[in-house]
């Protein structure tokens, strides 16, 4: 038994995790993968490394399921207990931003197909590449993923382990030029073991412990509640709050939206940044696809004098609602009192209804993007 399985079973024994057959099966498969990786390294041997011989690539793993089912936790355990140096764990969105930067550098060299050298660069000193939250929501990523991952897995011998909220067949569903993406789905199903984690316990909701999701009025108390929700949902230590990871989200059209706090599918935004600036439905859809939970702070009371901000807020909530994104908010009033009487109030009524529904247990239990 390796440390991976020991650590998982200890969490179950102490009550931090509940017994879950699908989760236990995934832990056992990750445990076996660790052994396969050690065996592959040993079989290559010192002389093989000196001759530049690549180690055989053990079959990777694709774990998918609803939000809060323990996918990221299992990924963390696997990575932490994998006793090799040639490993890397990265959020999938950050990885693809890195890939596009490498591709731009290669294209400037005008030396032919940029994919193989980019794959070689990524694979340098990396035998295991672990992704959290694989999601594909733009055509630029979709167009290159099949060839890139074919080179990583088959040519560079990298073992891929990834989590996702979607089954492989539902990745980039209804996306532009999706036919170019289908070979990537075939690659996943051929080269990776696909495991489902949709057990009965939503650990993220469990971590919230019945905490409300709408906090008002604005002030220190509401801000502290939103901050506490972020730490509970991401397991990030509050004492390390100065080093919370950020992200740059590609919202299309060559535009990037900076996300000041971004971890494990949870993004923190200010109302001023999302609704006080000139943004549209494409921006909000990119956010809704990238994050299963959005924490929105600084929501003011609105009225006819803030009609533009209110219209953007309506569009934002529509995108989050339609993609079943969880919303945790720090606002200056309850949803019913956010928009004062006057021109535009009638159009805001649907948003009030949606905001109230988004606080319900039924809504919170839905999976991200669930139809």
From TrEMBL:
Gene Ontology molecular function: any one: ATP hydrolysis activity
InterPro entries: ATPase_AFG1-like, P-loop_NTPase
One Pfam assignment: AFG1_ATPase
Cross-referenced PANTHER family: AFG1-LIKE ATPASE, ATPASE N2B
Record bears the keyword ATP-binding: yes
Keyword Transcription in record: no
Keywords: ATP-binding, Nucleotide-binding
SUPFAM superfamilies: P-loop containing nucleoside triphosphate hydrolases (SSF52540)
Protein name from the UniProt record: AFG1 family ATPase
Annotated GO CC locations: cytoplasm
């Amino acid at each position: 038994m390796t440390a991976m399985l020991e650590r998982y079973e200890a969490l179950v024994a102490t009550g931090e995790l509940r017994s879950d057959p699908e989760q236990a099966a995934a832990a056992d498969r990750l445990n076996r993968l660790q052994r396969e990786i050690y065996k592959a390294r040993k079989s290559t041997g010192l002389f093989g490394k000196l001759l530049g011989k690549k180690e055989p690539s053990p079959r990777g793993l694709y774990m998918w399921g609803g939000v809060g089912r323990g996918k990221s936790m299992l990924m963390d355990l696997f990575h932490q207990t994998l006793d090799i140096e040639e490993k890397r764990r990265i959020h999938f969105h950050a990885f693809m931003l890195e890939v596009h930067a490498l591709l731009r550098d290669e294209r400037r060299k005008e030396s032919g197909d940029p994919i193989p050298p980019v794959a070689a660069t990524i694979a340098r000193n990396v035998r295991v590449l672990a992704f959290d939250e694989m999601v594909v929501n733009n055509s630029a990523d979709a167009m290159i993923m099949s060839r890139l991952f074919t080179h990583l897995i088959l040519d560079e011998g990298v073992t891929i382990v990834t989590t996702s909220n979607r089954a492989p067949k539902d990745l980039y569903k209804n996306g532009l030029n999706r036919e170019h993406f289908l070979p990537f789905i075939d690659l996943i199903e051929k080269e990776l073991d696909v495991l489902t984690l949709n057990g009965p316990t939503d650990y993220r909701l469990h971590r919230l412990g019945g905490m409300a999701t709408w906090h008002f009025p604005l002030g220190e108390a509401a801000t502290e509640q939103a901050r506490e929700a972020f730490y509970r949902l991401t397991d990030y230590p509050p004492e390390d709050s100065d080093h919370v990871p950020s992200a740059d989200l590609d919202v299309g059209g060559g535009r990037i939206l900076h996300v000041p706090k971004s971890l494990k599918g949870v993004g923190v935004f200010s109302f001023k940044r999302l609704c006080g600036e000139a943004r549209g439905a494409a921006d909000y859809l990119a956010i809704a696809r990238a994050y299963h939970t959005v924490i929105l702070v600084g929501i003011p009371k609105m009225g006819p004098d803030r009609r533009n901000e209110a219209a953007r807020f309506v569009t934002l909530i529509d995108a989050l609602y339609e993609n079943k994104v969880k919303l945790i908010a720090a606002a200056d009033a309850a949803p019913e009192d956010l928009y004062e009487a006057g021109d535009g109030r009638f159009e805001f009524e649907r948003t009030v209804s949606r905001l109230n529904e988004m606080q319900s247990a039924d809504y919170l239990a839905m999976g991200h993007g669930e139809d």
